[in-house]
Write a structure and sequence with these properties.
About 15% of the residues lie in helices and about 25% in strands. The chain is α+β, with helices and mostly antiparallel strands. It has one domain: Beta Polymerase, domain 2, CATH 3.30.460.80.
């Protein structure tokens, strides 16, 4: 299902109320000219009645932010941290938390296509 940022929270809340109560994954896909964010949600019942849904939305490279969904799915915490640190997507409404890669200097976003993999790796300790 395609969604827009302004209706994301309402769409996910509605899905949760309809029984889609398990957040499988949140990830992003960098297409250079835009970034897609994908929410994978599951309705857990018995094996025969389990269903999966995908909620997808696109973001412009000049407007990379989303509201936090941790109030709907607390498990979103780590996925949102990953999107922020690895893709550069700002998650609004989150409390600041430490980096997933604590010693990384935070220069660039490793899961973007534009990331300079041939640049020398620096840690936060190298700045001391």
């Amino acid at each position: 299902m395609k969604s827009e940022r302004k209706s994301l929270l309402a769409a996910l809340s509605k899905m949760k109320s309809e029984g889609f109560d398990y957040l499988v994954k949140i990830t992003a896909i960098d297409y250079v000219d835009h970034m897609d964010v994908v929410y994978m949600i599951r309705s857990i019942g018995d094996i025969e009645s389990s269903k999966d849904e995908i909620v997808e939305l696109s973001l412009k490279p000049t407007d990379l932010w989303l509201p936090t969904v941790t109030n709907i799915f607390p498990a979103a915490d780590w996925y949102e941290r990953e999107m922020s640190e690895m893709f550069g997507i700002d998650i609004k409404g989150r409390n600041a938390s430490r980096l997933l890669l604590e010693k990384w200097d935070g220069t660039g976003y490793p899961l973007r296509k534009s990331f300079a993999w041939d640049a020398p790796y620096k840690t936060s300790e190298d700045k001391k």
